[in-house]
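Final report, section 2: Outcomes. Of the targets proposed, UDP-glucose 4-epimerase is the one most frequently requested by collaborating groups, and we therefore present its record in full.
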Amino acid sequence: MIQAVSGAKVLVLGGFGFLGRHLVVGLLRAGAKVRVFERSMPCDTQNAHDVEVVLGNFVTGDGFDEALCDIDVVYHLISTTVPSTSNDDPIADVQSNLVGTLHLLRRMQAANVKRIVYVSSGGTVYGNPVTLPVPEAHPLQPLCSYGVVKVAVENYLAMYSQLYGLNATVLRVANPYGMHQHRIGVQGVIPTFIGKMMRGEPIEIWGDGSVVRDYIYVDDVVSALLAALGDRSSGTFNIGSGVGHRITDVLEVVRRITGLKGEIRQLPRRDFDVEQIYLDIRHAREQLNWTPEYSLETGCAHYWRLIQAKGEI
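The predicted structure is given below as tokens.
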């Protein structure tokens, strides 16, 4: 894995976001030359001085030509929406995420950049599964615009692979959690639980808490992203823990590890919430030689230690 990364010229779209920050650290440690594409410079990015930064507009494609110059591989981590609110304005979702990606693919073709790793969604593209754990070959029937657009992007990547020789690796990532996940209350159950407990705020649970999800610690996502760089054939891989947990069970794990309590505010069930899903990760184990290292308990415990050490989420 390290050999595949070392010396590579890598462009990370969304390199200052949640996953991007962790990936950039992993790439730098592995010896890659990293360029980040973002719309603005954040004031709190510790590794910004270690990378080249190109500012631009993902939606319009402004800045892509400069960002793609002499690049070997693109990591596409950008999403302008989240599952819980994407149905509020599906047109904006398509215009920003899908059209932005099409701008990217056209500019990659013009720049002769033939390699892309795309972060899709293992939690939304399948809809309500008919088999568990869910394999990559399961029908794609998303219930929210976020998932619909992810599927559309996957299909365009397949088209570009078939027609234009693009090497595209799609990682359908489950529900990641870890440091720098700042959309508290909007995305990320575990950071939201911990953040609200620390502030003494009520914890909102949609429905009865029985929905089942697959949670993966961010370090395991990064190891999968790095492993994907060594895969030279276009493919799609589920990236998760391979284990499902109910929301109520996650809350109990967080309470036990942190020693914090929190008042629960129960809200009506949301129609777009999948009842239960966790991913079959055998294909990634076999093809990418990747295996997650953290269970829910060990991941939450490590995350909590980092929060205590740094005094922030």
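The mean pLDDT is 93.
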